[in-house]
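User: I'm putting together notes for a lab meeting next week and I want to include a structural view of one of the chains we've been expressing. I don't have a solved structure, so I'd like a prediction I can at least talk through. The sequence is below, exactly as it appears in our construct file.
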Amino acid sequence: MTEPLRPRHLRVMLVDDHALLRAAVRQAITAPDVEIVAEAATAEEALQLAPQIRPDVLLVDIDLPGMDGVGLVRELAPRLPDTRIVMLTVSSTDRHLLDAMRYGARGYLTKDLSPEALLRAVRSAYDGELAMPRRLAARLVQRLVETSSRPAASADPALATLTTREEEVLRLLADGLTDREIAGSLTVSPRTVETHVSSVLHKLGARNRAEAARRFRGVG
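Assistant: Thanks for the context. Below is the predicted structure for the 220-residue chain, given as structure tokens.
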């Protein structure tokens, strides 16, 4: 069986709140086989536009006003299974990298790459390859190994009583994030985060956040 042919044009949508950056990316990746078909300056705009456009590749910045890029990936990936979502950002923190890939991103690029490398990454992402520098891929694998090597929930039965959202909050808390940063990552209010943290502490019987974080990491 022959492989399906790549479409004549790869249709790319860009989500970034900086007009100058969007112009630079548009210039970098416009080619005979690649075109920018839509742009958005916020995640909220992208949530409205992307399901209508259904681009082949969606380039997303993380630092967006309102909902951040990771939250956008979490919302859009299930709705656009045929779209390859690739982060294009200045952030290379492990938290952003791991969360973006966990929620459905197909690649993670930093804005210091060359125009030629960006164009290659867009094409490779569409072809099903991992669009990510080797150094970030190595860090991603390491973090996944660390996560999988944590003690199972059965080693601390109280952890199994947490809801999915409570476990997300506790994971971010264990990564050292503040309530406001957790709220931004999960696109909820800081007050909602405080409520989840209070519930986590109660369910774990933990005296404070530091103790809850140690329990999640399996350290005492």
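A couple of points you could mention at the meeting. The domain at 10-144 is CATH 3.40.50.2300 (Rossmann fold). The chain has a mean pLDDT of 85.

User: Perfect, that's what I needed.
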